[in-house]
Structures are given as structure tokens and as C-alpha cells.
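Example record

One chain of 152 residues, shown exactly as stored in the release files.
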Amino acid sequence: MLRIILLINLFLITSHLLAQNLDTLRIETKSPWNAVLRSALLPGLGQIYNKSYWKAPLIWGLMGWFSYNWWQNNKFYKDYRDLYQKSINYGNENIVYKRIREFYRDQRDLFAIYMGLTYFLNLVDAYVDAHLFNFELRTKNDEINLIFQFNF
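Predicted C-alpha cells for this chain:
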């Protein structure tokens, strides 16, 4: 019985020593290059890592829209390329097919550029958002005021 009382007292004394509160403040940080790597692997994943959840569906939507338009214009380009080639093979070159073919080729190339820019801006946004993760805005009470006084 005496051993149990001694063990309980020993436990209470040592638990009080181990349970001291440290007066520290932990600030969560995000690694910018980790965010860029995640966004490079899957666009939008860096924004999720940075807890900017609303940006990921925007990136996915833009990439999906641009990819769909690229695919659609590429399909039309191939169709009109074949029609133009057939018109040349039959001996009467059709200029209308050539112009439409060039139009869809240009549109396809523009959407490829849009996809590349969206991907690049996704990486830049992930990097900047990770750098500014702990950035605090001042409230109205903390603002610095500038007062002009005119003496006449």
C-alpha cells in the first residue's frame, strides 16, 4: 500500500514538472518552392497547399476550357486541311478551304498559348501565395494616418 502511495506522489510531482507551458508562438509557414512543385505536378495543387481553396477550381476550369477549345480547333483544322488537300489533288485549288484552315490553325495556336500562360501563372501564383502566407493586414485602428495642416 505504501508503494502505491509513493508511486502516485512520484507521478503527480513529475507530471507537474513535465507539464510546464512554454511561452512560444508557432507561426505556420509555407515553402514557396514546395508550392511551385505541387502546382507543376498538378495545376491547382499548390493553391490547395497554400489554403487558397477557391483558386484551384478556377485554374481547373480555365485549363479545361482552353484544352477543349484547343482540341475543337485542332479537329476543325485537320478537317479543312484534308478538304483543301483534296481540292488540290482534284486540280482546282479552293481558297476558301485554305483560309478556313489557316483560321482554325491560328485559333488552335492561340489556345495553346493560353494554356501555357495559365500554367505559368498558376506556378507564379503558388509561389507568391506561399511567400505571403503569413502576411497580416492592418485594421482600421492600426492604420497610419497622414494629416495635412495649412497655415495661412
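Notes: Residues 29-134 form one domain.
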